[in-house]
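During the reporting period, our protein records have gained a structure token line. A sample record is set out beneath this paragraph:
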Amino acid sequence: MNTFRLSLLTLVVPALAALVWGTFSPTLSAAPDTAPPAGLRESSHDVHAIVGARIVVSPEKTIENGTLVIRDGVIEAVGEDVEPPADAKRWTAAGKTLYPGLIDAYDELSSEASRSALPDDAGARYWNDNVTPQARADRVYASDASTNEKLRGQGITARLLAPSAGIVKGTSALVSTADDDPQQAILKDQVALHLQLTTRRSGGYPNSPMGAVALVRQAFYDAGWYGQAWEAFESDAALPRPERSDALAALRAYLGRKPPVVVDAADELYFLRADRLGDEFDLNVIVRGSGNEYRRLDAIKATGRPVIVPVDFPKPPNVATPEAAMNVSLERLMHWDLAPENPARLDAAGVKIALTSDGLKDAGAFLAGVRKAVERGLSPEAALRALTVTPAELFGVGDRLGTLEVGKAANVVVADGPLFAKKTRVLETWVDGTRYEIEDAPPADLRGKWNVEVTRPDGEEETLVITLSGRPDKLSGKIARGEESTKLISPQFDALQFAASFKGEPLDYDGIVRLSGTVSAPAVDAEQADPPELSWLGTLVWADGQRTACTARRTSTDTKDDEDEKEDDDDEKDEPDDQDEADSDDDDQDDEEDDDRDEKTSDEPKRAIAEVNYPLGAFGRTAPPQRPQSVLFRGATIWTSGPQGRLEKADLLVESGKIKALGEKLAAPEGALVVDAGGKHISPGIIDCHSHIATDGGVNESAQTITAEVRIGDFIDPNDINIYRQLAGGVTSSNILHGSANTVGGQNQVLKFRWGAGPEEMKFAQAPPGIKFALGENVKQSNWGSRNTDRYPQTRMGVEQLVRDAFEAALQYRRRWDAYNRTKVGLPPRVDLELEALAEVVEGKRLIHCHSYRQDEILALMRTCEAFDVQIGTFQHVLEGYKVADVIAKHGAGGSSFSDWWAYKFEVYDAIPYNGALLHNAGVVTSFNSDNAELARRLNLEAAKAVKYGGVPEEEALKFVTLNPAKQLGIDKYVGSLEAGKDADLVVWSASPLSTLSRCEQTWVDGQCYFDVEEDKKLREKAAALRAKLVQRVLASGEPAAKPGDDEGERWPREDLFCHGHDHGHGH
């Protein structure tokens, strides 16, 4: 009786204790459910113990042989000496590796779902429907079983899901990949606000990237004002009640580095724009990267911003034929070579990265992309961190996700080897403690050494040894007889049946011998800690057809001493593994690589052939040109465009980037670079007063008639090859203008052509701000087509009234602010970016550069401006300026004209080539501009036309493209002439700069040589050699070439509208 009671207690007490502990443990019980039970309440607990596994707890901590315990979806214990609880289901994981569940750092709702994220009747919206910060992905999320299954196959247990519609798109949700209802699948709502700094092409505002940035900036200013206005009203109810806006209330929460703001960056330049936006409004910016970050790595590192990095690496361009290769740029070849190193370069630079499947056509290729990044230099530890710890921290769930630590969600990846080895498979993915089997496990793992007792055809018995390796579902191996061995042919294991064949000759048998057997073994996931004892009973079929019996028993699971394993694997023709690669065609060569589960890859990762240059591609620089402390140009004809006129056989001394002296026989400072300029001509750097190059996203925001809030400076593109080409024509500075689609366009940006520098470094910092105005056919939409006749103004009279109204509004705006700043009484005024710019115009702080043709309009604008004491900076084009030259001179405006263009549209029929000379003779500061990327390369010859048409003296004619545009742009204190103290912006010519036979040989900016005709030859040779190497690498890669459409190219053109013709759907 006592003995029986003791045995019973021994069996019952642990189970009873577990039941009692589980029932009354409040911290580890299942999450409460608000739905009432349909029947009897369940009190069971979901408990699992995964034993014998290699456990990667975090990127920094690994347990080589441990146990992980899961209770009700939460990790209860993990370690080497952990005992599985008595109530746990036990899973043997010998030879397996556990990793924390991966987090996909970015995914998007469909367009339809995004539109539903903010219902039509949802609260008080912002005035522009592109700004919807109150839209929420969690409100429309619906679990998709097929998507979740595919993601789990990649080890992904959670993903960030963001809205995709609009500019300020709304907030994202972090969702699990479990097949749960949204109530359980949504791990965190309102994780981050998402926005982009561009827009789709449309007729509404904004219809340009410049307009998108302006809209975002205005919305954040409005959000700040909204909070201040309501605080003022709530403290003084006598004040007017501010408008109600759910959008601004939502947006205000992100000011001051509060919750994260994810900004889309279509390329490395958008990344820098996102950073500037974050600085302006003190936002906690995370950048959704493009894969191009390596192109401006130092600048991106300096921002300190985390980046969500795609592994959607480009396919090789089509270079299969010489003709096809000619259509592929060096930049594209270099990008194909360098892009897979982007994650590694970012990580090595100390940039915090999180990886994403964003951009992949098939999320099933995600791990393949990560593995390629590892192959190209990203350490496995860094890759794991970018998939677990970093996204968990960025999204505010680091206490629940990212590692396999006690108390965290039981999101676990079970792999059959190192996760980032090419042939490693994800076997299981656990999400919140629920096990999802990715691939059906074979009935048993047969790998190891087997003693096979066989009966030969002559009746003799002997023992053979079979060694099986490879993967449990994809076996390889050999069979040995004494010292001789041969590989097994097509070993297969299915439904407990093992079969293979082998060549008999190496073992002193005849022909090919076939064998098969029925394996006696428990399933591989049986609840036992040690590998099971395995055996089989089967048959041998000899070459002569005789059948004999055989039996086998596994003696060891060790295959590490199998020296022939690699050879065996290489000889086999494996089928592509869809688990590892969604597109198996991309990796046919993987089947011939080592299948070693210890991931013995090359110690040295494959490296790019190309060196990153700035900008990427032909003629880019790996570093800025050196600036010698002193440079002496000796013996040249110097066109100073200054008081000294033209100097013959003179010297020019430059020190520290500034002109030190001009004259004869100047002494060379010690260590100076002496340039023999005998027989050469030196002029000031050419300045183009009207250009549209180096813009990224077009030059017109044409959706409204006044867009003073947009800024060309937000979209400077230092990668534009036209910068280098114009340096080759002697251009050193350029005025980049908004287009002429509206009466008041955007703010201009004066550049210095520092080729290779970033967008901010390219800006001429001392140049006064300016703005584009326009008159005539473009503004009143005369040539926009019959469907574009509804925007005010539609007449020249309306243009004049609109300008007058804008100036009045700007004055009132400034008065409101002045009054508030004096008294701090009442509601604070809004910051209005449009009126801020216009107020600067009225105050004389911002120059007007006005597109103009007809004399009547020119006169009307001058009279309107004079009524507000505003002086116009320049009339651009001004082709009827000669008719009112005296009035323009009296007003004080400059004239920046074409040299000899006329009759290209109706309003320029009265243009004449003598216009420049007549304006000059009337006392108007006159320049010739290009308004064209190609024409700007020979502005020196445009200046020469002033000599032909009107007899302007040569030295004065050269000033049309040097000193005069510098005066018009307010930079003549620094550039435009060769005088002591000015910037050393100069050009070395082979002959007179006004000669059609002259060639630009060197162009210097700030005392640095940015173009040299001899260096240019070397750069061409270097580019050709690099191109040939990259083509060879593409051909040798064996990867399928990109198809039409795979390369999207530029989202927006650099230039969409010009100011002189009608080629692109709008008048100019």
In short: The longest strand covers residues 47-58. DSSP finds 25 helices and 44 strands in the chain.
